[in-house]
Write a structure and sequence with these properties.
Layout (H helix, E strand, L loop, with lengths): L1 H7 L3 H9 L1 H8 L16 H10 L1 H18 L5 H29 L5 H27 L9 H7 L2 H11 L6 H34 L6 H27 L5 H22 L1 H6 L6 H23 L16 H27 L6 H45 L3 E5 L5 E4 L3 H4 L4 H4 L10 H16 L7 E9 L5 E11 L2 E8 L1 H15 L9 H13 L9 E8 L1 H8 L1 H18 L5 E6 L2 E6 L7 H19 L3 E3 L2 E3 L2 E8 L6 H17 L5 E3 L2 H23 L2 E10 L5 E11 L5 E2 L2 H6 L3 H24 L6 E6 H4 L6 H11 L6 E6 L7 H13 L3 E7 L6 H6 L4 E4 L1 H5 L5 H16 L3 E5 L4 H10 L3 E3 L9 H10 L35
Parallel strand pairs: 11-12, 14-16, 16-17, 17-18, 18-19, 19-20, 20-21
Antiparallel strand pairs: 1-2, 1-5, 3-4, 4-5, 6-8, 6-11, 7-8, 9-10, 13-14, 13-21, 14-15
Helix pairs in contact: 1-6, 1-7, 1-8, 1-12, 1-14, 2-7, 2-9, 2-12, 2-14, 3-14, 5-14, 6-7, 6-14, 7-8, 7-9, 9-11, 10-11, 10-15, 10-16, 11-12, 12-14, 15-16, 22-23, 23-24, 28-30
C-alpha cells in the first residue's frame, strides 16, 4: 500500500493554486503596510462577512470527511473486509476525485498554467487506477497482490506528470544561467535527500528485496517508489523557493498535501511498519487526506479569491518574505550538510561507505561548486549593473533642475540634491540635518502638515503621490512659491520640488486683470457683482443699509468728440481716482464700462432706515460734486457732470436685481435733467415694464400696418386759404380710434422702431402729396423730423431725393420741420445736411421756436425758410401782455430775416386776430380744422379756404406754393375729427 499512498498524494493542488489567481483576492482583505503609513482599520461589510461565512463550509466539510476516515481506520472499520475496502477503493475514490477536480478546473482555466492542471489530473488518474487494481486483488479476488503487477505500472506513471506539472508551475528563469541554477538547485535537494535516505534505509531495502541479486526488477521496484518521493520532495522544495506569485494560497495548500503524503511514505518505508502493514490502517488516513487536499486546493483558493472586496478598498500586495528568501539562499549549504550527515552516519555505524553515497555526495559537492561559481559571476554582474544604475540615477538627480529631498519620519532632511543651490539659493549641505518645517512659511505650515497626515493615512495604491504648494525660505530671506510632488520613502517622505514663483505671479496678475478694469485699475463688473453678492449673503445679508450707486458722467461723449479719445481716457482715469479716494475703506468703487461707474456702500447695521437713506444720499451727492469738479487735461480744463442712481438692499434681493434698480435710478436721474442724485422707487420698474410693452406694441403696429396718415391744413391768416398741409401719424386702435404716437415715442427706447416710423411717415406723406397733385390739388406737405434723425445714416439724403424722383413731387412741394434737436448735436454737421436738402428743393422750417433748442443761435447758423412758433407762445398771447410782447418781438425778428411764420395751436378766433395783428402770416389749429383723413382733406381743398375773423383782403401765399409745414398740435384729444 506504499504505492497507493503515493497515488493518493497529488501535487496538483499546488498547480491549481498557482493558476487560480486567488492570492490577489486573499491579499485584498489584508496586507502589511509600510511603516510610514498609519494603519487604518475598517470593519468588513456585511456582504464580506456573509461571503467569508459561506467560504468556511468547504474546509469544515473536508476536515469532517478526513476526520471520519481517520476515526474509522483507527478502530479498524469494524471488520477486516471493510478495512480492506476502505484502504483500497477509498483511496482510489479520493485520487479519482482529485483527478476530476484538476481536469474540470483545467477546462475552465485560461491562464498559462492550464497544461499543469491537465498533467496533475493525469497523475491523479494513474494513482486512482493503481489503487483500484490493488483493491481488485485484495477485495474482489481475495488474493495477495503480485509483485510486480499492473498496479505498479500505474503507480510508476503517477510521478512523471506530477513532476513536469511542478516544473510548469515554477517561476521560469529568464536566462540560461537561471535554468542551470534551477537544475542545480533541484539536484542539490534531491541528491542530498538521496544520500541521507540511502545511508539510512534504501541500501538495506535494496539488499532485502533481492538478497541473492537474482531479481533486478524486484530490487528496482523496491527503490523506485522512495526515489520518486525524493524527486517529488525536491520539486516541492524548489517550487516553494521559486514559485510564482500567482495564487499563493493554492500553492501553500498543495505543499501541505505533498508534505503529508511524503511523511506517510517515510513512515511506511521503515522496515518495522512495512512488515506489519495491511490496508485500512491509520496510515491510509494521511494518504486519503492528501488526495482530498489536492482536490480542494484550486476551488478553495478560488472561493476565497472571489469574496467581494469592500468598496473603495485597495489591494495591498504582501511584501517579500525575508525568511523564505534566506532559506532559498541557504539551500546549497543545507544540501551539503545533509550529504555530510549521510556519510557520517555510515562512519559512526562502522560500515563501509557505499559507492552510491560517495558518487551522490561528489555530484552534490560539484553542483554546489558550480552553483556558487554561477552565483559569484551573477553577483559581479549585478554589482556592476547596480553601480552603473546608481551612477545613472545620481546623474539624473544631481543634474535635475528640480530639488529632490528625502525627509525622515521625524521631519529631518536626510538628503537634498545639489539643485537646491540654484533654486533656493542655499547649499544642499546646509539644508541636510535641518527640519523640513523650518523652511516652510508659518502661514502654510498648518496646511502642509494636514495634507501630509492625510496622505500618509491613505492607501498607497489609492493615492501613491500627492501635490503640495507652499512657500519655502530662500537663501536671501525671501519666500519662494514651491510646488512639491510627495511620495512615501522608507517611512518618511520623498519630495520633488520646483520653483513656481513666476507662475504664481503670472496667475495672480491674470486673475487681477480678469477682475479689474485695464484703464483705471478699478474692479470691473464681474468683481463688483461678486462683492455685491458677498455683501448680500454674508453676515450683513439682512442689513438694508447696504446700497449700490450707479454713476454716469454727463457730457463725456462731447469730450471724446471735441478733444479726442486720449483726453477722454485721461478724464476717466482722474474720475476713477476721485471715486476711489471718496469711498470708505470697506466700500468698493468700480468701473462698469464706458463712462459708467459704480460704488458699493456697506451698511453699518443701523435700524433707522430713513437716517441711513439720508446718509447714503449725502455720500452720493458728495460724489456727484467731486466728480463734477473741473478736470485738467493737458492745457485744457474740462467739465462733466454726474448722474447718480441709488438703490438699497432689501430682504431676499439678488445682486442682479439690486444693480438693476441702481441702474434704473441712474437713468431716471439723467431723464430728470442730469447732474443729480435719484433714489430708486418701485415705480421705476413699472415704467420699464410699460416701456417694454409699448415698444413691443409699436413693433407690432409697424409690422401689421396699424398706423394711419392724417393732414392738418395750414391756413393763410389774411385770407383763409389753405397754404399747406402738415402730415401727422396716428395709431389706429382695435376700436377704430386714432391715437397720436407721441406718448409711444416718448416711452419707447427702441430707436430702430422710431426710425422706421419716421421713414414710413416721410414716404407716405410724399406719396399722398404726389397723388393729390395729380388729382389737381398741388398743396405742399410738411413733415416733422428730429434733428438727430436728419444726421442719422438710416435716413441719407439720397433716400429723400429718390422719393421726390419716384413720386414726381416738384420742387418746393416738401418741407422738413427740424424739431427737438439735442444740444450735443454738432451745428456744423446739421448745417451741411440742411444746405444739401435745400439744394434738392426741400424747404426748411424751424419747429417749436421760442422754447428749447429753437434759439437765436439756430436762426444765425441754420438755413431756415419758415419760423414756426411754439404753441406755448400762442396759447396765452391774448390774455398775457408779457407773452404778447415776446411773441410780437419774435415775429418781428422772423420778418426782418425774410422768413415766413406759422403759429402752431391756433384754437380760438381771438388768437387769429391777435397773431395777424402782430404780423404772423400763417396758422394751424382747431380754429380752422383738426387733422383730416385723405377724403375730408380733399373736400377742404376743393372748397379752398376757411372763414377768417375780420375780412382783410387776401394776401398771396409763399413763393413756390403754400408754406410746406408739419407738426400741428401734438396735444389734441384722441377723438378723431368729424
Amino acid at each position: 500500500m506504499v504505492i497507493a499512498a503515493d497515488a493518493g498524494h497529488d501535487p496538483a493542488p499546488a498547480a491549481a493554486g498557482a493558476g487560480s489567481g486567488a492570492s490577489g483576492s486573499r491579499d485584498a482583505g489584508s496586507g502589511p503596510r509600510s511603516s510610514a503609513v498609519t494603519t487604518v482599520g475598517a470593519p468588513l461589510s456585511r456582504q464580506s462577512v456573509r461571503a467569508g461565512g459561506s467560504g468556511l463550509l468547504a474546509p469544515i466539510a473536508l476536515a469532517t470527511v478526513c476526520a471520519g476516515y481517520a476515526l474509522g481506520a483507527a478502530v479498524g472499520w469494524g471488520s477486516s473486509r471493510v478495512a480492506l475496502f476502505m484502504g483500497d477503493f477509498g483511496l482510489s475514490v479520493a485520487a479519482l476525485t482529485a483527478a476530476l477536480s484538476c481536469f474540470v478546473y483545467a477546462r475552465a482555466s485560461t491562464s498559462r498554467f492550464r497544461p499543469a492542471w491537465l498533467l496533475f489530473s493525469l497523475s491523479s488518474l494513474m494513482a486512482a487506477c493503481g489503487n483500484a487494481v490493488w483493491g481488485w486483488y485484495e477485495v474482489v479476488l481475495d488474493l495477495p497482490v503480485p509483485s510486480p503487477s499492473l498496479a505498479d505500472l500505474f503507480f510508476l506513471c503517477f510521478a512523471p506528470p506530477a513532476i513536469v506539472g511542478l516544473l510548469v508551475l515554477a517561476k521560469r528563469p529568464v536566462t540560461r544561467a537561471g535554468w542551470v541554477c534551477l537544475a542545480l538547485d533541484s539536484w542539490l535537494i534531491g541528491g542530498s535527500l538521496l544520500t541521507l535516505s540511502w545511508s539510512l534505509a534504501l541500501a538495506h531495502t535494496a539488499h532485502a528485496a533481492d538478497p541473492e541479486g537474482e531479481s533486478v526488477a524486484r530490487a528496482a521496484l523496491s527503490l523506485a517508489y522512495p526515489l520518486l518521493d525524493i524527486v517529488l520532495v525536491s520539486m516541492v522544495l524548489a517550487l516553494h523557493f521559486r514559485r510564482s506569485g500567482i495564487n499563493r494560497s493554492a500553492v501553500n495548500t498543495a505543499v501541505a498535501a505533498l508534505a503529508l503524503t511524503v511523511l506517510c511514505d517515510t513512515v511506511f518505508t521503515s522496515p518495522l511498519l512495512r512488515s506489519t502493514y495491511h490496508s485500512g490502517q491509520l496510515l491510509d488516513a494521511g494518504w486519503f487526506t492528501g488526495s482530498l487536499l489536492l482536490a480542494y486546493a484550486p476551488w478553495g483558493a478560488r472561493r476565497r479569491g472571489t469574496q467581494p472586496a469592500r468598496p473603495g478598498s485597495a489591494v495591498v500586495r504582501p511584501t517579500s518574505r525575508p525568511i523564505a528568501g534566506s532559506l532559498a539562499a541557504l539551500t546549497p549549504y543545507l544540501a551539503a550538510a545533509v550529504c555530510t550527515l549521510g556519510i557520517l552516519y555510515n562512519v559512526v555505524e562502522g560500515r563501509r561507505v557505499d559507492r552510491v553515497v560517495i558518487f551522490t555526495g561528489c555530484t552534490v559537492v560539484l553542483a554546489l561548486v558550480v552553483r556558487q561559481g554561477i552565483m559569484l559571476l551573477d553577483n559581479i554582474s549585478l554589482t556592476q549593473e547596480l553601480a552603473q544604475k546608481e551612477n545613472h540615477f545620481r546623474s539624473l538627480v544631481q543634474g535635475s533642475s528640480d530639488v529632490i529631498m528625502i525627509a525622515a519620519p521625524t521631519g529631518i532632511l536626510r538628503y537634498v540634491s545639489p539643485a537646491a543651490a540654484g533654486v533656493y539659493g542655499r547649499e544642499a549641505d546646509d539644508l541636510v540635518g535641518s527640519e523640513l518645517a523650518s523652511i516652510i512659511h508659518p502661514e502654510d505650515l498648518g496646511g502642509v502638515v494636514h495634507e501630509v497626515r492625510r496622505f500618509l493615512a491613505a492607501s498607497p495604491h489609492e493615492e501613491p503621490t500627492t501635490r503640495i504648494e507652499c512657500r519655502f525660505r530662500s537663501g536671501d530671506g525671501d519666500w519662494l512659491n514651491v510646488e512639491s510632488t510627495v511620495n512615501r520613502h522608507q517611512g518618511g517622505l520623498l519630495l520633488n520640488s520646483r520653483d513656481v514663483t513666476e507662475r504664481v505671479r503670472l496667475q495672480a496678475q491674470l486673475q487681477h486683470n480678469a477682475e479689474h478694469d485695464p484703464l483705471t485699475d478699478l474692479p470691473n463688473r464681474a468683481l463688483f457683482t461678486d462683492r455685491v453678492r458677498r455683501a448680500l449673503s454674508g453676515r450683513r445679508s439682512g442689513d438694508s443699509g447696504t446700497a449700490v450707486l450707479f454713476i454716469d458722467l454727463d457730457g463725456f461723449k462731447a469730450v471724446n468728440d471735441s478733444i479726442g479719445h486720449q483726453a477722454g481716457d485721461e478724464l476717466l482715469i482722474q474720475a476713477a481716482r476721485r471715486l476711489a479716494d471718496s469711498v470708505r475703506a470697506g466700500d468698493t468703487a468700480a468701473r462698469l464700462g464706458g463712462d459708467e461707474f459704480a460704488a458699493l456702500i456697506i451698511g453699518d447695521g443701523a435700524r433707522d432706515q430713513g437716517a441711513r437713506e439720508c446718509q447714503v444720499h449725502e455720500i452720493a451727492d458728495r460724489l456727484r460734486l467731486t466728480l463734477s469738479q473741473p478736470y485738467r487735461i493737458g492745457a485744457s480744463e474740462v467739465r462733466v457732470a454726474a448722474s447718480i442712481g441709488v438703490a438699497f438692499a432689501e430682504p431676499g434681493i439678488t445682486p442682479t436685481d439690486l444693480m438693476r434698480n441702481a441702474d434704473l435710478a441712474m437713468y431716471r436721474a439723467k431723464a430728470g435733467g442730469k447732474d443729480r442724485v435719484e433714489l430708486y422707487a418701485p415705480q421705476m420698474q413699472a415704467d420699464v415694464v410699460r416701456r417694454s410693452e409699448v415698444a413691443a406694441r409699436l413693433r407690432t403696429a409697424l409690422r401689421e400696418g396699424e398706423f394711419a396718415l392724417l393732414h392738418q391744413p395750414v391756413v393763410h391768416l389774411a385770407g383763409g386759404t389753405v397754404a399747406a398741409v402738415s402730415a401727422q401719424a396716428r395709431w389706429r386702435s382695435a376700436q377704430g380710434i386714432l391715437f397720436t404716437p407721441a406718448e409711444f415715442l416718448r416711452v419707447s427706447d427702441d430707436s430702430d422702431r422710431t426710425a422706421e416710423l419716421g421713414r414710413w411717415l416721410l414716404e407716405a406723406a410724399v406719396e399722398q402729396a404726389a397723388d393729390r397733385a395729380r388729382a389737381g390739388h398741388p398743396v405742399p406737405v410738411s413733415v416733422r423730423l428730429p434733428a438727430g434723425r436728419l444726421l442719422d445714416r438710416a435716413l441719407p439724403f439720397g433716400s429723400i431725393e429718390a422719393l421726390l424722383t419716384r413720386y414726381g413731387l416738384p420742387s418746393g412741394a416738401l418741407m422738413i420741420e427740424v424739431a427737438d434737436s439735442d444740444p450735443r448735436i454738432s451745428f456744423d454737421e446739421l448745417e451741411q445736411r440742411l444746405v444739401a436738402l435745400r439744394r434738392l428743393g426741400v424747404r426748411i422750417a424751424l419747429d417749436g421756436f421760442g422754447s428749447g433748442y429753437a434759439a437765436i443761435n439756430a436762426l444765425r447758423r441754420l438755413p431756415i425758410d419758415v419760423l414756426k412758433l411754439d404753441r406755448g407762445l400762442v396759447e396765452g398771447v391774448v390774455e398775457s401782455a408779457r407773452l404778447h410782447k415776446i411773441t410780437s418781438g419774435l415775429l418781428r425778428i422772423a420778418c426782418d430775416l425774410g422768413m415766413q411764420s406759422v403759429a402752431d395751436g391756433v384754437d380760438v378766433p381771438e388768437q387769429v386776430l391777435a397773431l395777424r395783428a402782430m404780423g404772423c402770416t400763417h396758422g394751424q389749429g382747431m380754429a380752422f380744422s383738426g387733422p383730416l383723413d385723405e377724403y375730408r382733406l380733399r373736400r377742404v381743398l376743393v372748397r379752398g379756404e376757411f372763414p377768417v375773423p375780420g375780412s382783410p383782403a387776401a394776401q398771396p401765399v409763399l413763393t413756390g406754393g403754400s408754406v410746406p409745414l408739419l407738426a400741428g398740435s401734438h396735444g389734441e384729444t384722441p377723438i378723431p375729427p368729424t
